[in-house]
Task: structure prediction
Amino acid sequence: MRVYLDSIGCRLNQSEIEKIGRDFFACGHDIVSDPSHADVAIVNTCTVTAAAAADSRKTIRRIAKAGCENIVGTGCYATIDPKTVADLPSVKHVVSNEKKDNLLTHVLSEGEMEDIGSPRRIILPGKRKRTRAFIKIQDGCENHCTFCITRIARGGIRSQSEKSILSECTIAVDSGVKELVLTGVNLGSWGKDIGEKRLNALVLNIHEHFPGVRIRLSSIEPWDVNPELIELFDIPEFCPHLHLPLQSGSEEILRMMGRKMTARSYRELVSQIRQKSLDIAITSDLMVGFPGETEDLHEESKSFIEEIMLADGHVFRYSPRKGTPAERYPDKVRNLIKKQRSEQIRNLIHQSKSNYFNRFLGRNLSVLWEKVSVLEDGYLLEGLSDNYIKVETNHTSDLYNHISTVKIIKITDNAAVGRIIQ
Result:
């Protein structure tokens, strides 16, 4: 059977779709890069915003239009709105998040389920191709952010055992992976439900088992960052990058969002992290247009975001999600105002990102090459530094999935340009 895989949304979805691909491959099936060549397509959907849900529908329609007549919808959007997904063209199965681990049983007959080999990492072809391995360490969340549909779609926290995580890491590293990205819905809650050690101890254990391999956290809530976690930055392989969702720089909006932090506590945390190293990249998620966000509260948020000096950030317009408390809040913000505020925050982030990148002009960075394009006289290499700076260079060799020391010689709008020195 020829299988096409696609995923919308977060790194956790990417981790899951890679695992699904590996399971199909282990049963002797081929992973293809073109849905027109597929006997079945698996789409891991997202519903974190209305735009993500729309992207999920668009992806399924695109695959159906390409000629694939057997589509399986899974993931958060398929869990929250299974009927809509089931009614989309060529969708034959809808598999909720709760049943996702057994997805193959919905697609394959008993004779097609036979495991024919040892598990190994499958690099997905096409746009989902990654050198870094996303390792799912937990699922679910027990926070109560009033805007968030993910907790409803994913349920309560469920940690993977340390043994199973190390097994996943082994599969990835034995396949040549040089960076492990730990992912989850609420990463900092790992171990809480199974009585195991906490996240910092897990990272130390992974480092001990796989010396020399980079370890990165995908995203962690600010209130889950403790001094022990900050101390991990003494490990050279622990990537100096934390993605700390802020959502708003307004104290009042944070309170209405149900966030377990204040702007002041976020500022103090950032200060503690930068005492360890000013070069650590701090990136974030930022939302505009939450119900009740007046012009004054937006200006308060802008000032705080400018003060924090983020290395980068994802900017979202608030999107009401059915079943969340914020859906019922009064004082909705008009779409035109959301658009204007989003543009203002994006401009702030662009300037902040530029300032951070420029700090490394003339300095050396460690870069993992993730994309290679053939040129007339060599190759264009694109990759990520350990502190999450996109770096480009021209080189005579194809260094895909290699780590190089690169001297930064130029900063462009979206990347740093470097010269390989080692």
